[in-house]
Each structure stands twice: as C-alpha cells, then as structure tokens.
C-alpha cells in the first residue's frame, strides 16, 4: 500500500518578531553584562590607583632609606612633597617606626576603596588606613625598614639612629698610615686633602705614591648643579682617594669599601681595571624600563638570592642611566651619560631603583 507524503503546511511559515518574554530575557542579559563590566572597570581602576601610589611611595622610600643608611640610621628631618596627585597627597615628614629601625610615609586623602587595595608586599612592611579629613577619604600610613628589607630578620639589622659620630666597631685597634683614616669595615681610607685635586684617575698617580700606602687610587668625583640649574652635574670637583675594597667571599666582583657617588664609582672600577656592572650583567632585563623600578622575579632572570650570598644586603650603583619625569612617572632608560640619574640595586629587598648622580647620593661601586 502506498503512503502519501504529507507535508506540514506550517513548516515553512515565516516568523515575525520576538515575544515579550524573549525580549525581556535579552535585556536582562545585557543588563547583567553591563553591571559586571562597570564593576570590573571599577576594580581595575582601584588597583591601578593603588599601584601608582605604591610605586611613588617606593621611590620616596628609597631616598629616605639612602639618607638614613649613610647617616648612621638618622632619618632626614623633613622631606619634600613627592608625587602628589588626585590619587593622594604625600605627607612631608617621616616618623620613627618598627622600634626605631624603620620609618613611615603617610599618603593623605586617599579614596577609602583605594586604601583598602594597598596590600602588604614588596619592600613595604605594613599599611594602615586611618580616618582622613574628608568624607570617604583615608590616610594611608605605610611602614618600611630603614634598609628596605622584606625579611623581618634582615630588617632588624637596620640602624636605629644616633649622633652620626659613632666610630665603626671594626676600627677599634686599627692603625692607619699617615694621610688615611679608618672607614667602613675597618679599612683605611685616604683623608681629603687640599693637594689631591683631580679630574681623572691619572691625576692621582703622584698623590698615590705619597698617600696610597701601596694601594690603588682613583679620582673621587663630586658633581652638582650649576647655579642656574641649566644642566645636571656640570659643576665637577675631584679629590684623589685610595680605592679600598670591601672583603668578599667571591672573586667575581670588586666592591668599594665606602658608599660613593656614581661618578666616583665609575673611576673606582677603572682603578681596578674593571667596569661598573650593568643591569644586564646581573640578569636584570625586564620590568624597569617604564617606571625605572622593578622587584623580584619581574626584573628578569636575576638570581637575587645568589647575589645576596655573594655581596650581602647592600646598595650598588650600576652603569645604566635613566631619565624620569616625576610629574608623569614616565622614564627613559639607556646608556646616555648626560642624564641626571642612574640605576642602583638594593639587595636587601631584591629590587631596582634609581637616584640622582649628584654628590648627595652614595652607594657602593660594584665592578667586574
């Protein structure tokens, strides 16, 4: 028996429009996605503002730390405002913290939600959000160890401060040759004299025969702004000094016994027939280019633990130069020796920072 093919007459009927239920469903989905997007954007902006504030605070903390560590732990009496923006205002003062081994920086008038995003991390030891002067605003008090250590055991090694005239215990019983005085770690450092002026290392050859005690000598350079501030470090003066080294457990590097200026560090390394190391020499290849700062693994393949074992918890100049706009935070790094600033590494916290190459910033020379 043949079965006739029955065609559903409604099968090809065209559809027109959507039901109210379907339209409400679409609107509901769009609404949920919109709310989620706005919320996500808000969270991202809070994190961005918090990161910007933490970055600016870290740059200021390194300046305070450098002054404290080169002044027997004494904090600067005042600090100028730094990095102030619509995100918050940095308080122009510091206070003793962490039983005298640390200091704190206050950022005033921070959005409450942003302050909550300021989490402990990096070189920071603690953040406390306190009531601000305006509704919805808080004051963020950020605490650091003076040596910017991240490990409390290392932070406890920070100096607590003093008169600035205490004698290094390592100098007890040390008798230095005439024309030198006991300095860092019991090493004899040439005293500043009026007859040892120089502009390059070769100028110190004759001076070194009399005052060097058989050691290598170099031209220690001080550099400062011209009176009209038209350029960086054009006002150079030099003084011959003994290129005394710090005792290390490795022959891979040569390190200056004293903290010295960047220009002095270059000459110090030359006196030992070596060169000031670069960031790349240390395996630091990433993270620092945009804001002239990086820490930990974000800096590249650098082995911070290995460097710390070899060199200890200290600050070291490197040869790389950098130029930064403090208003925008944008930086340009490279080998331009005409810039005002250069990088240095802080092995206490495993981080890269930068500072002026002028004569009031001093770290150790790291040569290889």
Provide structural commentary:
- The model has no long low-confidence stretch (mean pLDDT 76).
- This protein has six helices and 16 strands.
- With 368 residues, the chain is an alpha+beta fold.
- The strands form four sheets. Strands 10, 11, 12, 13, 14, 15 and 16 form a seven-stranded mixed β-sheet that branches. Strands 1, 2, 3, 4 and 5 form a five-stranded antiparallel β-sheet that branches. The chain has a two-stranded antiparallel ribbon with strand order 6-7.
- The longest helix has 50 residues.
- Strand 14 and strand 15 form a beta hairpin.
Entry summary:
The chain is an alpha+beta fold.
**Which structural category do the helix and sheet elements fall into?**
alpha+beta
Q: In percent terms, what proportion of residues is strand?
A: 15-25%
Helix and strand run = HEEEHEEHEEHEEEHEHEEEEE
Question: Helical residue percent?
Answer: 10-25%
Set out the fold topology.
Layout: H1 20-69, E1 89-90, E2 95-97, E3 102-111, H2 112-117, E4 126-131, E5 137-145, H3 152-155, E6 180-182, E7 188-190, H4 205-211, E8 217-224, E9 235-242, E10 254-255, H5 262-271, E11 294-295, H6 304-311, E12 315-324, E13 331-334, E14 341-346, E15 351-356, E16 364-367
Parallel strand pairs: 12-16
Antiparallel strand pairs: 1-3, 2-3, 3-5, 4-5, 6-7, 8-9, 10-16, 11-15, 12-13, 12-14, 14-15
